[in-house]
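debug: dumping io for the single-chain case to check the tokenizer round-trip. Nothing else runs in this session.
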Amino acid sequence: MPTELLFRDDAYLRDCSATVVGLTPQGAVVLDRTVFYATSGGQPADRGTLVTASGQVIPLATAVYTDAAKTEIAHVPADAAAPCPPLGESVRTAIDWELRYARMRMHTALHLLSAVLPYPVTGGSVGEAESRLDFDIPEAGLDKDVITAKLAEMIAADAAVVARWISDAELEGKPELVKTMAVKPPIGTGRVRLVEIVGFDLQPCGGTHVRRTSEIGAVRVTQIEKKGKQNRRVRIALA
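debug: decoded output
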């Protein structure tokens, strides 16, 4: 049963009520709706809690998609032996907001980094303190201070970050929107989510982001590594 992914419409939601619609053999809980982001696209899953109808608090360690189409999310208890709520029970979930918000800031900063360095992206990872993107760049010569300064300009611009949906066919007609080489945006459900940083960047993305670039705060490029003949890894951190 598809889970209503509330974080896609509002990444600032911290909690929600839901109904238990499934239990996995591993003891994870499937809900009809959730604010939990599930591990995908280089962004780790949220952590948080699930509160049962009786008031029992179950810490949740992670959230994962149960299907290839990424329509259903299972919430994984931190304690595998914790008793799961029964099917049909009304529960309430809440994310670790401080952790989520840090990742929202970092994920948005990575979009800006991909605009500063307009090269194909071969990989990436979102963290709460440090994140990275790998670029297919034939020549070296990247300057940490120059990249940091350009990121600072974009962040200070207080540009709006907005999401919208386009059809699979529209995306196929605009291949230039896809920056990632290693991971292609999911298609097959009929539509794809685009995230735009107005004036700077537009690309398919299912992750969580801040509403304006000014929320990112200060970031700096901490390291540039050579990972192959044409691969450069650029690491950034919240300053």
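debug: round-trip ok. The mean pLDDT is 91.
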